[in-house]
């Protein structure tokens, strides 16, 4: 079983405060993500830019080796730390389902990466499966200053997983993320203040 890695290294610039501390279904977004993935993954780690953050979260943590370079740094550090394949999930995606993650792992086949695509065919690299074989490519990209996750997926010919591939595990909310105050307000309005 690959390790699930919850990305929590962002600066929440667009939110104006730490978005991962926002409440969703009675927990912070970060704690909710960890708990969801702990149901189906034997090992769940939180990828952070600063090890002193999120002390209230009991999960194992890994810190960026190349700080300040976005999700590519989190992926790289996770691959180095685990020495194996990882499933990457952004903590700000409240409906990112571990069941869908397992399906993406199944769909990967011999590819280095498997990621879902939206209706326009664009990859979602922050809810995707990465084999350890990606590590030298991520390292090279970081050293060259190319931190684009989309470019990495394109360069390695990632397996595209469509809504049809995911079947009943797909929903319009699966890849939804919370970046701005209006995103969170909309989420709360849609669900009701205390509903999931």
Mind telling me which CATH architecture this is? Alpha-Beta Complex
Question: Helical percent range?
Answer: 25-40%
End-to-end gap = 28 Å
Instruction: Tell me the overall shape.
Output: globular
| Content of β-strand | 15-25%
Structural class: alpha/beta
Name of the CATH first level: Alpha Beta
Please, what is the oligomeric state? Answer: single chain
Q: Mean of residue pLDDT? A: 90
Structure notes:
With 196 residues, this protein is α/β, with parallel strands linked by helices. The chain has helices at residues 29-38, 71-82, 98-107, 135-143, 149-155, 163-166, 181-191; strands at 3-7, 23-24, 27-28, 44-48, 60-63, 86-90, 113-116, 127-130, 159-161. Helix 2 (71-82) packs across helix 4 (135-143). The longest helix is centred in the middle third of the chain and has 12 residues, at 71-82.
